[in-house]
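re the bet — no i am not wrong, look at it urself. input seq straight from the record:
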Amino acid sequence: MLLEDGSHAHGATWRGQPVGSFGRAAAFSMNGPKPLSAGEGGFVATDDTELYYRVLLHGQYNKRCRREIPADHALAPYAVTGMGLKLRIHPLAAALAAAQLPRLKGYLAGREAVAARMRRALRGVPGIDVPHPPSHVSPAWYALPLRYRPDQLAGLPVERFLEAVHAEGADEVDLPGSTRALGDHSLFHTPGALLPGYADHQGPAADSFTTARRVHGSTVKLPVWHRDQDLHLADAYTAAIIKVAEHHKELVK
């Protein structure tokens, strides 16, 4: 069964097909900087009735489950308690998201324009490789990921590079945090404290996920805006990166 995590990809497509439509179900979150934002919360998209009932029992039990799961269904007896979790989105957040959904296409067009502007500005800057999505891909541009190349900046460590960029006022430029090789997370390496039944689980070998680790260790990401009035922010961020790259020799100790 394929379950998609579309948390950062609202409206993104691959060969014309939207992210979230490839698997049996897809989960999307809607916190602050996401292309579709409701402040917090999320939703699951699926056309699988059985899976839908299980999603309801996971976070929407009691009234909604009793109303939507047929009384003669095998899962109906669990409508009152569900799985013991109530993880439903707050109704106000759902209303905010629903009101924004018709605007999503415009948001994405704005992000595409700003991302293209930032990529043009950074193209050819030493130490920075900009992404070049293939023609059959339409990103949502939750962020602008850059490949950091210390070999082009006299070996300047990425941490020192970021420190200098932040000093220029571009303090939202950062390194990916949770999006890293699974083996680097305690949940997948030593899950026993959280999941006692998996205390004897053998985590991934030290040399697992070498490509993921390499990508994570060389990625810097920038925010992407979508409004014309935010273009000055986009330009200020790229200017900060260009300035630091041009003066990198002064930062190498």
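see?? Residues 182 and 188 are 6 Å apart (CA to CA). told u. also Helices lie at 49-59, 63-68, 91-100, 104-122, 158-167, 186-189, 210-217, 231-246. so pay up
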